[in-house]
Amino acid sequence: TRSTRPQRLLKVVQKHATRGDPQSVISAIDHFCRHSEWAMNVGDEKGSILDSVVSELNPEKVLELGTYCGYSTVRIARLLPPGARLITLEFNADYAAIARQVIAWAGLEDKVQLVEGASEDWIPRMKEHFGIETFDFVFLDHWKDRYLPDTKLMEDCGLLRKGTVLLADNVICPGVPDYLEYVRNSLSYKSYYFKSHLEYTKAEDGLEKSVFLG
Ligand SMILES: O=C(NC/C=C/[C@H]1O[C@@H](n2ccc(=O)cc2)[C@H](O)[C@@H]1O)c1cc([N+](=O)[O-])cc(O)c1O
Ligand SMILES: [Mg+2]
Question: Which pTM value belongs to this model?
Fold first, then answer.
């Protein structure tokens, strides 16, 4: 039977990227998704904004909601200082299996912990299961109707501290109106919109950076 899109992405990485070279993994996926088959990776344009936010923050503890094939996992983990840790949550077992191999190909498995399951089940367990006090940086790129409830859940679980940065993908396309309204109007956040484009297209999209004020 026909392969899946994640399987085709992994094949492209294994064929065109160099083991242990995260940039080559990123470039191989971007080239394939721009010229052969679109996929819902954050992509090169928004990815550069993600890079700048991570580089400026230099986070020790990172949470990613929505691994998919591991593209943004690789983008973030490649910039983390030694000893820093990225926990990425993936609901779909098939996607998780592909992402593990993409992350390993990039040579970043020591910095990344991929956890399979639903964000609402794992967020309340971050402290007791992973020994996490608070996160320095959270990248939201999972189901768009989960951005707001999961943000409130992270607040309630005490996982955000003064200065924690949330960066949300797709705030225009497909859009997360309830999340945007919340972080832009809540007195607990200072929010900024980075205008960009939907990955590999000319459609508008953007990233919303929201700093938790405690
Ligand atoms: O729908 C989109 N993303 C949903 C992503 C969902 C991912 O998050 C995981 N997850 C992990 C943990 C959970 O608790 C739930 C799901 C799912 O198993 C999936 O791997 C999307 C769509 C477009 N688009 O143009 O249509 C563009 C984008 O950049 C997008 O991100
Ligand atoms: Mg996205």
Answer: 0.98
Is the minimum distance from the CB of 92 to ligand 1 under 6 angstroms?
A: yes
Whether 144 sits among the annotated catalytic residues: the reply is yes
pLDDT band at 1; cut points 50, 70, 90: confident
Q: Over the chain, what is the mean pLDDT?
A: 98
Compute the distance between CA of residue 15 and CA of residue 83 in angstroms, rounded to an integer. 30
Q: Whose C-alpha lies nearest to ligand 1, atom 24?
A: 174
pLDDT digits (tens, 9 = 90+) for 80-89: 998 999 999 9
Do the Cβ atoms of 6 and 94 come closer than 8 Å?
A: yes
For residue 35, give every residue at least 6 positions away whose Cβ sits within 8 Å of its Cβ, in sequence order, or none. none
Residue 138: which H helix or E strand, with range? strand 135-140
CB 134 within 8 A of CB 160: yes
Among this protein's residues, is 205 annotated catalytic?
Answer: no
Active-site residue flag, 64: no
pLDDT digits (tens, 9 = 90+) for 168-213: 999 999 999 999 999 999 999 999 999 999 999 999 999 999 999 9
- The backbone torsions φ and ψ at residue 160, rounded to the nearest 5 degrees and listed phi first, read -110, 140
Predicted-assembly ipTM surpassing the 0.95 threshold: yes
Evaluate: CB of 68 within 6 angstroms of ligand 1.
yes
Closest CA to 111 of 153, 141, 152, 81: 81
Burial class (CB in 10 A: 0-12, 13-18, 19+), 101: middle
Distance from residue 100's CA to the centre of ligand 1 (Å): 17
